Amino acid sequence: MAAATTVESALPVAPLPTVMIEPLVRAALQEDLGRAGDLTTDAIVPADTQTRARLVARQDGVLAGLDLARLAFRLMDPAIEVRAALADGARLRPGAEIAVIEGPARAMLTAERTALNFLCHLSGVATATAAIADAIRPHGAKVTCTRKTLPGLRAVQKYAVRVGGGSNHRHGLDDAVLIKDNHVAVAGGVRQAVQRARAAIGHLVKIELEVDTLEQLDEALELGVDVVLLDNMDLPTLREAVRRAKGRAVTEASGGITPDTAPAVAATGVDLMAIGWLTHSARALDIGLDS
């Protein structure tokens, strides 16, 4: 039975425009079709065969990526009709009917794997994000993703994080400054790195600085950075870092955070928790196309 519950978020998650997702779906279909098309389906299924199938959840999770799945079917044949029973953000239970698909059988079978690849992967990202968001909700911290995304899929993976109740860190190298340890080493120190960054950027660009110790944190706060990335700190150190930074900079924890450890990290009072595996290693959600 389908669950109607959606993931809690401050604002509804706007769907990605078709102009953004269509190149991804076209490229995936072209990769699968190769040089000769779907040899199996074209040989077995008569050209005029019509069929009906359902997208069905096979495990608990959060739905994301339905627009990409729909587009995969429609690009193969506009005559395919996809009637969604649920929307992205819905909490799924095993057996939940996500959508009914009707139309030319050849096109439906050819698009099946591409549609499911997007739907299962992005639902997996949303599900993993929701697990963290649910675990830390009593503490008020937000879960954020990183730039550790699969090449070419950043926009849709970050969309899935939002669907799962998380927030996005910077989308690329061009929308914020994040000074990490290697930048500091090459620049010759924290002060030099921050001063050079501030001199080069526009007034709307924020500066985040990665710190590993309380001493580095104190220097960062003195320099007036906007955000401090508290990297791989133990809980007592993290708690003290949050105390020192309160009212002076946004605090973001990172480093090996899991659903099990997330509540304790959030309880230190950090504002944000950056988790790279949400996008680069999230387990796909099991969703199938059933006749």
Automatic annotation (TrEMBL):
The entry's keywords: Glycosyltransferase, Pyridine nucleotide biosynthesis, Transferase
EC number of the protein: 2.4.2.19
Assembly and binders: Hexamer formed by 3 homodimers.
Domain of life where this protein originates: Bacteria
CDD domains: QPRTase (cd01572)
InterPro entries per UniProt: Aldolase_TIM (IPR013785), NadC (IPR004393), NadC/ModD (IPR027277), Nicotinate_pribotase-like_C (IPR036068), Quinolinate_PRibosylTase_N_sf (IPR037128), Quinolinate_PRibosylTrfase_C (IPR002638), Quinolinate_PRibosylTrfase_N (IPR022412)
Protein name (record): Probable nicotinate-nucleotide pyrophosphorylase [carboxylating]
Pathway: Cofactor biosynthesis; NAD(+) biosynthesis; nicotinate D-ribonucleotide from quinolinate: step 1/1
Pfam families (alphabetical): QRPTase_C, QRPTase_N
Reaction(s) this enzyme catalyzes, per UniProt: nicotinate beta-D-ribonucleotide + CO2 + diphosphate = quinolinate + 5-phospho-alpha-D-ribose 1-diphosphate + 2 H(+)
A GO CC annotation given for this chain: cytoplasm
EC category name: transferase
Any one Gene Ontology BP term: quinolinate catabolic process
Domain (Quinolinate phosphoribosyl transferase C-terminal): residue spans on this chain: 125-290
Family per similarity comment: Belongs to the NadC/ModD family.
Lineage, opening ranks: Bacteria, Pseudomonadati, Pseudomonadota, Betaproteobacteria, Burkholderiales
MF terms in GO: nicotinate-nucleotide diphosphorylase (carboxylating) activity
Job description of the protein: Involved in the catabolism of quinolinic acid (QA).
Domain Quinolinate phosphoribosyl transferase N-terminal residues, every copy: 38-123
